[in-house]
Structures are given as C-alpha cells and as structure tokens.
Design brief:
ten-stranded mixed beta sheet; 12 strands; mainly beta; globular; about 240 residues; Jelly Rolls
Length: about 240
C-alpha cells in the first residue's frame, strides 16, 4: 500500500445526480465515461493513445464487466491480450481531506487532474498451470470489503476542494491471465468514514453488501445492453 499527500485549492461542494438511463452510445446516460483500447504497443498500455475500439458509460468507478465483442456476422470475438480500460469522471468536492483507494488485479494508475496519485503493479501470470488456492479475504475493523486475491489496494490521502477530474487506466488480462476486470474499483471517503465508489453523491459504499448489489446490477446492465447482433442468413 502507498500513501500520497496532495494539496489542491478550490471551491465549494456540489454533488452530481445519478441519471436512470441505461448505458449506450449516448454518453450522457451515466456520468463515468469508459473507453476500451486494444492492440496497444507493448509498454504503452498505461498511456493509451489513438481512438478507442469501444466506449460506453458507467454509474461509478466499479468495473466488473465489459461489453461483449462481436464480428459483423454476429460471431463473438476475443479482445486483444491485454486490452486497456480508461475511465474518466469530473466532480466537485467540499474542502478537506479524503482517503482514496485504487483496487486492481493488475497494473493500473489513478490520475488526478492528469497527475498520478496511486498505482498498482502488474499481475504475474501463472506459468505452472496449477492455480494456487487463494487465501480467504480478511475483514478488518473498518467495515470495508477486503481485496480478493490477487487484487491490490493502493491508497492516497488527498486534500481537495472544488472541481477535479479523475482518470483510471487499467490493464485487463494478458498472456496467461483472465481477460476480465475482476473487482476493479476506485473509492473515497473522509478519514474514518466508510468509503463510497467514486461517482455522484449516493454511490454504493465499499462494503460486501453494496458491492454485491453493484456487481449484480452491472451484470444485468451489460447483458441487456450488449445483445449479439443479428446474424444474416447463410453467414458463417
């Protein structure tokens, strides 16, 4: 775990209301913009450039599913190994101190107004072919959902006020790794308080109960919004 201190002047607090519309091509549906990048040059994954292969929106910084990928003839396709998820969100904060937590299974970086404030390390692939038995998650006295193996937590203590833009860049999968986000998330809260997922006011808390509801809602949303296109008659 890492601890950073950043002093930023600013303005008064204002929270954003969460819309009810589903995710889709209309990027106003939810406040968090998400972009997926594929086939990036090795070593450039945490600084993705060019046009994303797909974009959509999410209610908050909780990423457990990504849209399915299909060919024009409706055949399901795999994404590149790895692919990259970039999420961006802007909101206002009341002046004061905030704990931030970046949780990722592999390499990820959290940027505040373009400057890195936390990062996690790349996940090592299993070369033996035998998956080790993961240790059980350990709950502590804070009440937060613990990171499931092999997730990492990187923490930052930030002094914020006014409007700020957060960007998360995460490497998803890779050779010998599962091509899913796992429990990729960013949460924040006042010192001593239960953290909430980074998003509008009222976003889910980083507790077992809230996370499980959030993950279930994400699965329903992605299943409903990523139906396979119709395959033309006779298409292979």
């Amino acid at each position: 775990m890492r601890l950073f201190l950043l002093l930023i002047p600013g303005l008064a607090a204002l929270t954003m209301a969460a819309p009810d519309s589903p995710r889709g091509e209309d990027l106003s549906g939810y406040p968090v913009r998400v972009e997926l990048f594929e086939n990036l040059p090795a070593g450039s994954e945490l600084q993705p450039a060019g046009e994303p292969t797909e974009h959509y929106t999410e209610p908050a910084f909780a990423f457990v599913h990504t849209p399915a990928k299909f060919a024009k003839n409706a055949v399901p396709l795999d994404r590149s190994e790895p692919f990259v998820l970039r999420a961006t969100y802007t909101r206002r904060f009341a002046p004061g101190s905030y704990n931030f937590r970046l949780r990722a299974r592999g390499a990820a970086v959290l940027l505040l107004d373009g400057k890195e404030v936390a990062h996690t390390e790349p996940q090592k692939p299993n070369k033996s072919g035998n998956d080790p038995v993961p240790p059980p998650p350990v709950h502590d006295e804070t009440g937060h959902r613990p990171p499931a193996y092999p997730h990492q937590d990187a923490k930052a203590l930030l002094e914020l006020a006014g409007e700020h833009t957060f960007t998360l860049v995460a490497v998803i999968g890779g050779k010998g790794l599962y091509p899913t986000p796992g429990e990729l998330a960013v949460s924040f809260g006042r010192p001593g308080a239960i953290e909430r997922l980074l998003g509008p006011g009222g976003a889910p808390r980083l507790t077992d109960a809230d996370w499980e509801k959030c993950a279930a809602a994400s699965l329903r949303r992605h299943r409903g919004a990523t139906a396979a296109p119709t395959r033309p008659a006779g298409a292979l």
